[in-house]
Specification:
three-stranded antiparallel sheet, Rossmann fold, about 15% strand, single chain, about 40% helix, elongated, binds zinc ion, six-stranded parallel sheet, SIR2/SIRT2 'Small Domain'
C-alpha cells in the first residue's frame, strides 16, 4: 500500500528553537513596533530611501542567515528520507527546512525567502549574502547591478500579495494529503490558516501542534500542546512507523 502523503504547515514556532523570533505573527515583533514594521512594509520600503537603508542595516546586523536547523526541522527531513511522501508549506522565510535536508522542490515558502534578494524592476534574484556584502562594503542601499532598480529581500512584505503560483501549489497539497500537520502556527493569518480547513474538508487527518489554542483545534483529530522540539519529532516518528 502506498504511504500516505503528509503535509506540514509550519509557522514561527518551528524556528523559535533556532533563535529566530516571531516577527510577523499577530503578536510578533513587527506588529508591536510600528517603526520596525515600516521596514517590512512595501509602500514605505519603495517610497523612502532611509527606510531601505535601515532595512538593509537591520538585516546585516541580525544575522538571520547564521541560524541553524533544530530538532523539528531535522525530524521533518528525516520523515522524507524514510520514504514517506512529505510536502512542507511554510510561513517562515529562514530556509531552515531546506538546510535540514528537505528537497527545495518539496517546500512551499508562502512568504518567500530571506536567503535571496530580488530586484523590484527586472526581478533578477541572487543570494542575500551578496547583497549584504555590498551593504558591509559601504553601499547603504545597494541598487540592482543589472538595471539599477531597487533591491529588496525575496520575502513577501506587508502590502504585497502572496505568490499565486506558490499558494496554488500549497492548496493542491492540502487537498491531496492524507495527513495535515499544522505546527508552530496560531492559524490566524489567512490564507495560510485556511489550508488546514481545506485539508480537513478533503478528508485529511488534521493534527495541530502548537503551544497556544488555534481556531482549528475543534476541527482537528489531534491537538498537541507540548514543546515543538520534542512533540514534532515524536509525532513524525509515529507517522513513519505507520
Ligand atoms: Zn534589476
Amino acid at each position: 500500500m502506498a504511504k500516505p502523503l503528509v503535509a506540514l504547515l509550519t509557522g514561527a514556532g518551528v524556528s523559535t528553537d533556532s533563535g529566530i523570533p516571531d516577527y510577523r505573527g499577530p503578536k510578533g515583533l513587527w506588529r508591536r513596533d510600528p517603526e520596525a514594521e515600516k521596514l517590512v512594509t512595501y509602500e514605505y520600503y519603495m517610497g523612502d530611501p532611509e527606510i531601505r537603508r535601515r532595512s538593509w542595516r537591520m538585516r546585516w546586523e541580525t544575522g538571520v542567515l547564521g541560524a541553524e536547523p533544530n530538532a523539528a526541522h531535522r525530524a521533518v527531513a528525516e520523515l522524507e528520507r524514510s520514504g514517506v511522501p512529505v510536502r512542507v508549506i511554510t510561513q517562515n522565510v529562514d530556509g531552515l527546512h531546506q538546510l535540514a535536508g528537505m528537497p527545495a522542490r518539496k517546500v512551499y515558502e508562502l512568504h518567500g525567502t530571506a536567503r535571496e534578494f530580488v530586484c523590484t524592476a527586472c526581478h533578477v534574484r541572487g543570494p542575500m549574502e551578496e547583497a549584504l556584502a555590498r551593504v558591509e562594503a559601504g553601499e547603504a542601499d545597494p541598487p540592482c547591478v543589472r538595471c539599477g532598480g531597487i533591491l529588496k529581500p525575496a520575502t513577501v512584505m506587508f502590502g504585497e500579495r502572496l505568490d499565486p503560483v506558490v499558494l496554488g501549489e500549497a492548496a493542491a497539497v492540502a487537498k491531496a494529503c492524507q495527513v495535515f500537520v499544522a505546527a508552530g502556527t496560531r492559524l490566524q493569518v489567512q490564507p495560510a490558516a485556511g489550508l488546514a480547513g481545506v485539508a480537513a474538508d478533503h478528508g485529511a487527518r488534521l493534527i495541530v501542534v502548537n503551544a497556544e489554542p488555534t481556531p482549528y483545534d475543534d476541527l482537528a483529530d489531534e491537538v498537541v500542546r507540548d514543546p515543538i522540539g520534542t512533540a514534532l519529532p515524536a509525532l513524525l516518528r509515529a507517522l513513519a512507523a505507520g
